[in-house]
Each structure stands twice: as structure tokens, then as C-alpha cells.
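Request: How about a record?
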Amino acid sequence: MKREEALDDLAFMKSLVQSGADIQRPIGEGYVAAGVCYGVQTLLHLGQGAGLVSDQGLAGLAVALGPTVVFLVLITWLSIKNRRPTAAASLVSRTVAAVFVAFGLSNIALIAIIGSQALRLKSLDVWLIYPCVVLGLQGAAWLIVYTLRRRAWIAVMAAGWFVTGVAMAFSIGHPMAFVATTSFGLWGLMVVPGLYMMRRPTAA
């Protein structure tokens, strides 16, 4: 084997195990942005259920739409901030990023599929299946990442998404329990690992 070929093979093998911090940090930032925005919304919903926060007028509209508006602004800013070449990132890191992007985009199809039927049946319960399925997909995404990274904490995250999604499904029909379970998922499974990925970009 020529020396050049041996060096190419060595570089390829190295790319399979490098951490690719440039990929992981933006994912963590996106997780924190989504988790905080919608986590605050779930806490406000709990406040509404307890009679501490109004669900009428401008206050109710702000709780319903405000977090999504803030999240869209944040994710747009993060996309611009993190728009840079990623050719130096490892093959595994690019695969991890592709997994999260693919599962994220699948949410659009789920909104169309489940949302259309919820609208047709005029059923809130049908619509609430959507976030439960999203959590299941997140669990699948983290499970794929675990097969690539083999980190114990990633396996814990995958299990957490699966369990929380199932718990949410069983709590449909019990609004406060549903919102509380959703809040746990957002803060515990999005904000916490997101901060970890931002602070320890080479850990996953």
C-alpha cells in the first residue's frame, strides 16, 4: 500500500471517532432554545390550570402564541450565527446532525397527518397524540446517536424520551397531568442535555 493511501485511510478512520464540536454545539443551542420557550409555556399553562395566570384576552393569546414567536426568532438567529462550513466535522458528527434534522423535519408531516384528522373529528385528544409521537421520534433519534457514540448518558436520554412520550399518551384526558409530563420532557430532556452539549461540545 502506498504511503498516501495509508494516510488517507488513517484520516478516514480518525474522522469516524472525532467528536466534531462544531456540530454538537449548534444542536445543543437549538435544544435549549426550544426547551426554554416551550417549557415556559407549559409552566404558564399549569399556572392557568391553577387559576394563577389568565387564559383570556391578550394574556391567553400571549401564552398560546408568544413562545412560538420567540422560538422562531431565536432559531433564525442561531441558524445565521452557526452558518459556517462543516467540512472539518467528523463523519459521525455529520451523521448525528442529519439524524436530528431528519426527525425534526418529520414533525411537519406529523402536523399534517394528525392535525388534519384532529380538525376533521374536532378532537383535542386526537391532536394531543402529536406531541406524544414527537417524543417517541426524539427517543428514536437519540437511540440512533447512541449506536454511533456509545455514551451511557445518550442511552438514558433515549429511554427518557420513550418513557415520557408513553406517559404523556396515558395522561391524555387529564390536562394538568399531561402538561406537567410535557413540562418535564421539555426541561429535563431538552434544556438539560442542550446545556450539556453546549458546555461539553466533545462529550457526545
Notes: Confidence is low (pLDDT under 50) at residues 12-20. Helices lie at 3-17, 21-49, 57-81, 91-121, 124-149, 152-170, 175-199. The radius of gyration is 20 Å.
